[in-house]
Amino acid sequence: xxxxxxxxxxxxxxxxxxxxxxxxxxxxxxxxxxxxxxxxxxxxxxxxxxxxxxxxxxxxxxxxxxxxxxxxxxxxxxxxxxxxxxxxxxxxxxxxxxxxxxxxxxxxxxxxxxxxxxxxxxxxxxxxxxxxxxxxxxxxxxxxxxxxxxxxxxxxxxxxxxxxxxxxxxxxxxxxxxxxxxxxxxxxxxxxxxxxxxxxxxxxxxxxxxxxxxxxxxxxxxxxxxxxxxxxxxxxxxxxxxxxxxxxxxxxxxxxxxxxxxxxxxxxxxxxxx
Amino acid sequence: xxxxxxxxxxxxxxxxxxxxxxxxxxxxxxxxxxxxxxxxxxxxxxxxxxxxxxxxxxxxxxxxxxxxxxxxxxxxxxxxxxxxxxxxxxxxxxxxxxxxxxxxxxxxxxxxxxxxxxxxxxxxxxxxxxxxxxxxxxxxxxxxxxxxxxxxxxxxxxxxxxxxxxxxxxxxxxxxxxxxxxxxxxxxxxxxxxxxxxxxxxxxxxxxxxxxxxxxxxxxxxxxxxxxxxxxxxxxxxxxxxxxxxxxxxxxxxxxxxxxxxxxxxxxxxxxxxxxxxxxxxxxxxxxxxxxxxxxxxxxxxxxxxxxxxxxxxxxxxxxxxxxxxxxxxxxxxxxxxxxxxxxxxxxxxxxxxxxxxxxxxxxxxxxxxxxxxxxxxxxxxxxxxxxxxxxxxxxxx
Lengths: 274, 398
Description:
The complex is a heterodimer.
Chain A: H1 2-7, E1 14-20, H2 26-38, E2 44-47, H3 58-68, H4 74-86, E3 93-96, H5 99-105, H6 107-116, E4 121-123, H7 133-142, E5 145-146, E6 148-150, H8 156-164, E7 170-173, H9 188-199, E8 204-207, H10 213-219, E9 225-228, H11 230-238, H12 240-244, H13 246-263, H14 265-273
Parallel strand pairs in A: 1-2, 1-9, 2-3, 3-4, 4-5, 6-7, 7-8, 8-9
Helix pairs in contact in A: 2-4, 2-13, 4-6
Chain B: E1 11-12, E2 15-16, H1 22-38, H2 42-54, E3 62-64, H3 66-72, E4 76-81, H4 91-104, E5 109-114, H5 118-130, E6 133-139, H6 140-145, H7 147-155, E7 159-163, H8 170-183, E8 188-190, H9 201-209, H10 211-224, E9 230-234, H11 239-245, E10 254-262, H12 273-276, E11 278-282, E12 285-289, H13 314-321, E13 325-331, H14 332-346, H15 352-367, E14 373-378, H16 386-393
Parallel strand pairs in B: 4-14, 5-6, 5-8, 6-7, 9-10, 9-14, 10-13
Antiparallel strand pairs in B: 1-2, 3-4, 11-12
């Protein structure tokens, strides 16, 4: 939790990018993580490709398919975090994995790997609070953040419980459905965020559909940060050929970095003016 | 007692549970509340029973397979005739139950997944009867292979949505149906086709399908004045098997679930989840499943489209561990032989799925004595398979 203290706690301008491990190859993922840090990211959410990603829309599904072609696994992905650290990555890294992959790797082995490779937390999108008791206890013992999610449909009672026990940051799902780019948010999201912030013991970040600077601007006052996944992954997909070629990779990564910087510009203008 | 599961958390022993995204949790809570309310509501149960009778044609008969029994010269074989339900399989029992529940919950739309199209047809059928809008998700591969059922669903007024993700088969259609449901949960009910998925689905589908076993138990007792020595049913997700076994679990009858061994359980081409699979999470449930070492879910294979599911209902995993039910597997070839035999001896063309159960029952009957009895769930009729059979058998019945 050391890195969370330094880079996340107490902030209200968090930029949390989601990138797919091994999409389109390990080296690109490593370099992209470092680039995103340089462009203002506070946490890297490292997605692990899965054959049956229930919570994800088509953009992330396709990224998973691309990555699975490289035989990316949970284990190889955790090990790549160490390589990111060697390249200068200082911010927290969250492993975003479906539960089955974690089960097959084994929880004990996961924690040993996480320690060795300097992973800071884990997010399991198909492990709701009620099923997470065991993992929560292990994370606490190991000093890892277990990132919880809340959705607009989460009942008041569960919201209090989940938000009250949040560690690292609380992932607030902006709207119903799966991950993916959305043009705008429903107005009710603001009332929802207000409620979540009241109960949350950790910074509140909004994800699902964040793809434009205007959205970041609109959300700025209502939450502590944004999670950007599909919008970034789309750029990775459109630069796939360049990311595969070592000669053009650096340039492609810079271009994705430019997109990330433009998207989160509303945070920086504030940072500059204060 | 084997009958007192699941617990409040939806666990059958260690199996089952709710391994779903947070966005699904509210819908499951809502469903659970409705289920608790209406399964104790006499008017609802009356409607369900009436529809089973008047629309599906229940009770289905228990047929003594006289010639097969004579031919095998062993245990007496009885068939529970789920093939005589409207739409040709046990699937409609569950579809009626869930559609009536959807109506009671005020939902206007249903969404369903289908592999071969049997559950999709059942869903489209009840949607037509009860005035619900119906979307059926179906893998692109399956749409191509099952053109007749696709047409049936459309004729019944349903929209068939092609699924292009993943391997484009049943498991991906299920993922896509769940994704759609999550996005449209306010007015949409997810009508699942088997005893799989997150709690309370496995329990709900069991409770709608137990009518098979409840009827069979009474019919069998009236006929033989005792309980069957052995009960056999095929298992894909496992709804006809649970429906058949469940009312007998506190009796002495041996229960045998038959999985699809495809081209053989020592080849990669099978769907024998309990025989060859390992513990994991699929479609919201902790259960046995077919996966690689890293935990990626594998594509199963069986000639029978209704059995090639990479997971299995969590209650089956529980019944396997507790040894109350024995699970075995039957190959494509064995099933086809049994299908031919039943057609020619009894004048009943069974579904290829059900033929797996028959093949196992025939094997056992030979080894049992004439005072003993076997009850087989004949879960569906074979009309839907005629095209596959013609291709496989080269157009020549033998």
